[in-house]
Amino acid sequence: MRNLDRRQFLNTAGVLTAGTLLSNPLQTFGNKSQTKMKLALAGTGIRGTSFWGKAIVERYPDVTEFVALFDHNPGRLEFAKQFMGIECPVFSDFEAMINQTKPDYVIVTTVDATHHLFIIKALEMGCNVITEKPMTTDEGKCQAILDAERKTGRKVIVGFNYRYGLQFTKLKELLVKQEAGRLTSVDFHWYLNTYHGASYFRRWHGERDKSGTLLLHKATHHFDLLNWWIDSDPMEVVAFGALEHYGKNNAFRGENCRSCPHTKECKFYWDIMAEPHMVDLYVKNEKYDGYIRDNCLWRDRIDIYDKMAVQIKYANNVQVSYSLTTYSPYEGWRIAFNGMDGRIDSWEGIPWETEKLVSQSQLHAAEMSQKGAEEPEEYDEIMVMKNWQDYNLVKVPRVRSGHGGGDVRLHDKIFKDPNMADPYKHSAGTRDGAMSILIGIAARKSIEEGRMVKIEELTDLPILAVRP
């Protein structure tokens, strides 16, 4: 921990005390003698109805019960009930939903820029909250969430499922054991393919007033992993980014893929009408709110970055080089941890490393699938090499569905056994949610203002060399 003045010390003590008092708000539901946990879902898009909806209904019917659904789109609300296989009231008035159904937990999966509205209101009305990442999209909203949690005594859980993946957990274990010695720097590069990467630019995610850019919506996953692995708080950020591929960077454009006259020449053409689930969830309900799911990738309203590079300095002096690409021919990532005594390398989805060419659309579909983890037939690899020694290859069972098996493990921790052992601190709360998005917010500011941004500028959270 760095040196703190009296004000910072008192602030730190308050944050740590609050975290101790509410370290496990779900523990009462871990006792089977208790009644079922009453859940309300705010936001009935594909993420809400599948990962935070149908999957929970099917996996945990003995301990959970959905008592309400909220959305401004009545068509999606009715489809959500059918798809999730539940019977409960639906609401377009959030406060009325809480007053009438009194849920224990509100699950927030609305548009990113609106997360804070529902998180704060739910806390103020006596509910705990589970929120989809990112927790929110700017520093003001982040501070408001932190203040509301402290004031109300309620708790927010952030759904960082990547932490629970087998490969990422094994990396954490090796780092805790200091297999490469004291950590000094990290190289982390993520590649979204032309199927998955392009999908963000079709949706509301391509507009920064809704998503905060992919430095928030997507990279918050990666920044959280870095914070968790490095076990320290980010301190300073410098970043670069640009929009050079999607948006206005094309000779032609249309209203959306369905009505576009350029389908034969556009390599990114996507036929939403060939996917019944997308038709039922989105196309049939456009008339209620005008949300188009197969928007043109080249529309003028796209104003986020499609290439990003971020340099991060941590309070424990670890340096990170990170990049995100959104139009790669393959989907995957590379990471290297450099230590005083060696190096740890790992990767996923690199074709010449796996020696297996896969359909990129099928790969993403498998990752997002909520089916149970398949029996592993292949392995992912982690290379551990100490200075002046030969390398050691660590094999991790490969699970493609549910984000490397992390989805089920996250759900089990929340809904099945909240008191399960957590030696590597997988569970994430508001401090974790804040520190991940603050990197993205600082990176966005750095790009826009052309300067290095200090994390301490953004909220009142103290910056700690060792995470609490």
From TrEMBL:
Residues 38-160 form the Gfo/Idh/MocA-like oxidoreductase N-terminal domain. Gene3D superfamilies: Dihydrodipicolinate Reductase, domain 2, NAD(P)-binding Rossmann-like Domain. This is Oxidoreductase family protein. The lineage of its organism: Bacteria, Pseudomonadati, Bacteroidota, Bacteroidia, Marinilabiliales. InterPro entries: Gfo/Idh/MocA-like_OxRdtase_C (IPR004104), Gfo/Idh/MocA-like_OxRdtase_N (IPR000683), Gfo/Idh/MocA_Oxidoreductases (IPR051450), NAD(P)-bd_dom_sf (IPR036291), TAT_signal (IPR006311). Residues 172-455 form the Gfo/Idh/MocA-like oxidoreductase C-terminal domain. One of its GO terms (molecular function) is nucleotide binding. It holds the Pfam family GFO_IDH_MocA_C.
